[in-house]
Write a structure and sequence with these properties.
This protein has about 425 residues and is of the alpha/beta class. About 25% of the residues lie in helices and about 30% in strands. Helix 1 packs parallel to helix 6. Bound molecules: flavin-adenine dinucleotide.
Length: about 425
């Protein structure tokens, strides 16, 4: 017999937690909502995994989810108090959207009136790409709490050992910083000419790479990992690079390489740009099926185009918007369409940074971007068609963040780029 729910959320990540919170806020009867997750824990702050979760002194212990703007903390008990069923350690292996039914690996079936797909991303394994020796022990991937726990144990077991981090994206950067704080000898390897190359300009990257070097992280760019060797216990021992170099390693972490988890729905729902296509209320092409968070490709009104983003804030906001739209539709009301301003942040060593808006066009750098400074603080604007369309800030950024958000949203004209560089943060403050 299928277990039946009025609302079913597939996925137990950030978007699921926020959606549950919004359902509860709108008024929910006990037993109406369930979350199905293959993870063993309630939704939690996934972003913390590569940050405070691996802190050598005071590791932040999950699962907790901090819900803004009300700063409420969702613990596992919160779901039972609200009558929300958490169906954990349950992987869905079959979805029949026409029949409104999901089937788990254990053979249970679940049916629903309304489904919210919040399955996020999954890692691409080097073994799937045919990299030789990639199934050795102590090669880790990093997406879920289970991955973080395994890495945490390895860090303890391989005290003062050598770690190689594969990839130059933000997760690789955060993990490299954390491994270094745990006293490992860390080398990052990536093929691009600089770190975070899809977002960072060469100037922003120069600061970050310089800062990482100062902290003792080795960086090897413009090369890729082609294989691994293992010791007699099957544990990784060496990392082989395409340029012929060989690195010793006790731990390898693959920080990059993710794809949206859409496989369950192939051929049943419209897809676009690798994700599940939605409208501005996160409705998919199938009636009563919504998609939110990293897996959704949705219209960004501000830029008049469909995008899929892998950002925390969007996971929260999209989940809340979808639930508002679901409840409004039930009550015969309407809600405003999603009006998203891209915002992404990261934090490694003691350096927070944040990007807001669009990274297209020319750029200007301003502020103190020397890795040798005691308190570096700098930013960059992106300028397209004479307007400021995006902003990046690094260092102690709390004071300027609102002003930068405003700039990225209103996209003010700029007459003189040299003047803009001189004004820097004060340009945003006076808009
Ligand atoms: P997720 O949070 O990934 O949740 C997906 C859930 O679906 C998981 O619980 C998964 O197990 C479950 N699931 C998938 N398929 C199935 C299935 N078939 N059956 C059952 N369950 C399933 N963003 C930022 O903006 N700033 C940051 O600093 C930042 N740091 C990050 C650090 C790390 C280590 C990671 C991994 C991500 C980080 N992000 C950051 C990105 C951010 O966490 C994501 O954008 C956000 O988690 C997306 O939420 P989601 O609910 O869409 O997906």
């Amino acid at each position: 017999m299928a277990k039946t729910f009025k609302y079913l959320i597939l996925g137990g990540g950030v978007a699921a937690g926020y959606a549950a919170w919004e359902f509860a806020r709108q008024g929910l009867e006990p037993g109406e909502l369930a979350i199905i997750s293959k993870e063993a824990v309630a939704p939690y702050e996934r972003t913390a995994l590569s940050k405070f979760y691996l802190d050598p002194e005071l590791p932040n212990r999950l699962p907790t989810l901090y819900v803004f703007p009300r700063r409420e903390i969702l613990l596992p008990e919160w779901y039972s108090e609200k009558g929300i069923e958490l169906i954990l350690s349950t992987e869905i292996v079959k979805a029949d959207l026409a029949a409104k039914s999901l089937t788990s690996a254990g053979g249970e079936t679940f049916s629903y009136q309304i489904l919210l797909i919040a399955t996020g991303l999954t890692v691409i394994r080097l073994s799937d790409l045919g990299v030789q020796g990639a199934d050795a022990k102590n090669i880790f991937y990093f997406r879920e709490i289970d991955d973080a726990d395994k890495l945490y144990e390895a860090i303890k077991a391989k005290k003062n050992g050598k770690a190689v981090v594969v990839g130059g994206g933000y997760i690789s950067m955060e993990l490299s910083a954390r491994l270094r704080c745990n006293n490992l000898d860390v080398t990052m390897v990536y093929p691009e000419p600089w770190c975070m190359s899809r977002l960072f300009t060469s100037d922003i990257a120069a600061f970050n790479e310089g800062y990482y070097a100062k902290k003792g992280v080795n960086i090897m760019k413009r090369t890729v990992v082609v294989g691994f060797t293992a010791n007699s216990d099957g544990e990784v021992k060496e990392v082989k690079l395409k340029d012929g170099r060989v690195l010793e390693a006790d731990i390898v972490v693959v920080g990059d390489g993710l794809r949206p988890q859409t496989a369950l729905f192939k051929g049943q729902v419209e897809e676009e740009k690798g994700g599940i296509k939605t409208d501005g209320f996160f409705k998919t092409s199938v009636p009563n099926v919504y998609a939110v968070g990293d897996v959704a490709t949705f219209p960004v009104k501000l830029y008049n185009e469909l995008r899929r983003v892998e950002y925390y804030e969007h996971a929260c906001l999209s989940a809340r918007k979808a639930v508002e739209a679901i409840i409004a539709a039930e009550e015969g009301k309407t809600v405003e369409e999603y009006d998203y301003l891209p915002l992404f942040y990261s934090h490694a060593f003691e350096q927070p940074w944040c990007f807001i808006g669009d990274n297209v066009g020319d750029t200007v750098l301003f502020g103190d971007s020397s890795p040798e400074s005691s308190f570096p603080k700098f930013g960059s604007y992106w300028i397209k068609d004479g307007k400021v369309v995006g902003a990046f800030l690094q260092g102690r950024i709390d004071e300027e963040r609102d002003a930068m958000e405003y700039v990225a949203r209103v996209r003010p004209s700029v007459q003189n780029v040299d003047e803009l560089a001189r004004e820097g943060f004060s340009f945003a403050r006076k808009i």
